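Example 4.3 (complexes with small molecules)
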Amino acid sequence: MSENVTAGREFDYHGPALDNVFDTYKQLREQCPVGKSEKHGGFWYVTKSEDIFAAEQDPDTFAVAPSMLMPAFGTDMPLIPIDIDPPDHTDYRKVLLPLFTPKAIAKLGDGMRRTSRELAQEVAGQEVVDASHLFARPMPTIIFSRLAGFPEKDWPKFDRWVDDIIYERTDNPERAWNAGREVIEYFDDLLTSRADEEPADDLIGVLQQAEIQGRKLTHDELLSYCYLLFLAGLDTTAWAIRSSLWYLAQNPEAQRVLRENPDEIPTAAEEFLRTLSPVQGMARTCKKDTELSGQKIKAGDRLVLVFGAGNRDPEVYDDPDEIQIDRQNNRHLAFGGGIHRCLGSNLGRQELVVALEEFLEVVPEFSLADPSEPWHGVGPLTLRIGK
Ligand code: HEM
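Answer. The structure with protoporphyrin IX containing FE bound is encoded below.
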């Protein structure tokens, strides 16, 4: 059997499979850009930017139901709005729009900066430190939990739930489902207690007052929104911050440039999102027989839009595997690209930029203390601070 066929059949986009995944992406894109993997019950992987954008633009053929999460996120309830297809998707998505406009996100700016600075100061005072635990993870947890109205006393529970649901679901599905149940119970209680209070000016308050197709949202719909936003809002941004620091820790020159020119941090942040994308792929289900890059795909087949591979497609980017912190015209797929394009992209971007600004301002030159720690995920990132 040829090497590329084996690579394709065994292709995965989770966990340790990501360690050297960029070589695999190159091989697949060159030799078999749309092919079949046997993992997770079997799926077609789609690795070229053009094909991914085309599939994103055609939700009638490439549906999200039963779920774009493969394997499931510790529950089989459809998550709103990510697992909802047209026509209902538009109404469900609309409910969340006021929370994520650039203006709404700008209002969070001062608190975000203060929190980042305080967390960065804890890192700066140490010699060897886990910057994921002390900085990359708590920053988005605090910012999003305040926006959402998740009580501060509960925040310490969140990391384990995220780890079990997102990172254990491939090797340890039972653990993911148990954590999923705990999260459902948690939001069940929170929503019930909030139902008797005056609606507050936060995510839960907005959802409780929202109307869809002339009616209020049901308790199960509220639960589904909370469950998805909890997972979408914490893990992705933590990954983006951690992976950016992972890169910078190995590149003192990039640290120097960004410290001296903080106005270049937003451009660098886009490049980190492109090359070290927190969401490497999302699933779809084919609703009718079709073709992508000459490959026939049948109705009912599952496929995965591999954003991480599309983001390094040489047909779109010069030297695609090179991280160029000043790369311009960087139209990438880190937030998707169709009707399900990330609703939290303004928030995620701003959190990443502010986190990097404050970290570089407060923390002196840093390097990797444990080079065996991978580029991906939200696990430890051990840094040595100071030269
Ligand atoms: C750097 C951080 C983030 C990245 C890289 C990211 C990435 C993504 C991706 C790839 C999708 C799926 C797009 C598709 O399949 O076309 C998505 C959807 C979504 N994201 Fe994010 N995300 C981030 C942060 C956030 C945050 C902070 C929130 C909210 C708190 C959020 C909320 C959502 C929602 C609600 C959807 C579903 C939108 C829909 O189905 O219409 N994301 N995100």
